[in-house]
């Protein structure tokens, strides 16, 4: 990702607060605990302040932790990975592990907007190649409030995944979250710089970054730490 020259200039994400709107976040993960920010975290699904994921046998709620690690896993601790912005503070909003209603989305998108700088989301309409949908009334209001009043008036930053419906020929232009003027829509590239099988190609995409490729290419790889311990035992 050509990120090392940025680190050398001292740009590590220090002073920046990111929250991951997803299926939860392992707050005590050994590679996240140092950068974990409770003020950037909430559990919308269970109405409490702890976004710890719900564990099951197939570790289905690992995506939020995975995103948080890519952003802000701790550097130089001889553990796991290094986040692109390893100096950033990171929190998680648990909101995918239940019905994702307009109210759930709005609550997540408006968490502590004077503290959180960047909201990272990878959800939206079904990636089935036939659903055209976008944010409802409450989520739309949350976007507008965020970009006009968040970050003390500088505007909240909403980063959006462009979608995983490539196999179904889904098109991210038909996704009202990625094509919104209030979000930055980010696509992915394989380690060889090619379009991955799941990727959706559309004009609302602002940038692309490396992510998992095909089975014989590099993947973003992770388990929840507690699940990892379970598998090892
Ligand atoms: Ca909880
Ligand atoms: Ca690490
Ligand atoms: Ca899609």
Automatic annotation (TrEMBL):
Pfam families (UniProt xref): Peptidase_S8 (PF00082)
Any single Gene Ontology cellular-component annotation: trans-Golgi network
UniProt xrefs under CDD domains: Peptidases_S8_Protein_convertases_Kexins_Furin-like
Coiled-coil region(s): none
GO BP, sorted A to Z: peptide hormone processing
PROSITE patterns: SUBTILASE (PS51892), SUBTILASE_ASP (PS00136)
Annotated keywords: Hydrolase, Protease, Serine protease
Peptidase S8/S53 domain location: 13-217
GO molecular function, one term: serine-type endopeptidase activity
Family that this chain belongs to: Belongs to the peptidase S8 family.
The protein's name in its UniProt record: (apollo) hypothetical protein
Gene source species: Parnassius apollo
